[in-house]
UniProtKB/TrEMBL annotation:
The chain crosses the membrane at residues 46-68, 88-113, 133-159. InterPro entries: DUF456. Keywords: Membrane, Transmembrane, Transmembrane helix. It comes from Flavobacterium caeni. This is DUF456 domain-containing protein.
Amino acid sequence: MDIALLLLGFCCVVIGALGSFLPVLPGPGLSWVGVLLLYCTKPVAANYWVLGITLAVTVALIVLDYVIPAQGTKRFGGSSYGIWGTNIGLIVGIFAPIPLGFLIGPFVGAFVSEMIYNSTDHKRALKAATGSFIGFLVSSFAKFVLCMALLGLFVVVAWRHRSGF
């Protein structure tokens, strides 16, 4: 049973790392579940401090994942229309039948929304859409860093207790 939990946990951490760039997969959450599964095995004693701290960071990053692209839009001069357009574009982009729709969606959503807000200022709309795209990239990078840290934690803890499996 411990080997099955170890393998399932490792798969969760690796798929979570891929999910840090693919919005369809819940990257940080899935990686944290992988670490939790590791601590559920008998050879590895549960360290509630590590689990609690990594859970808090994971939850904070999941919340920030929705806030950062919208704040990027706002910081680059976007209105509330652009912020809403970014969020709607992100959701639509995930399900769009075009390649890399999750990258294009927030940009297009912010641009179209800003054009609805002020149809004469193309330059401002483009600037807000650029802020949305930069916010999305920052958010994805932060998720990737967390997922890599959780993968590193998983490997170190599993390696330390390798003789018990």
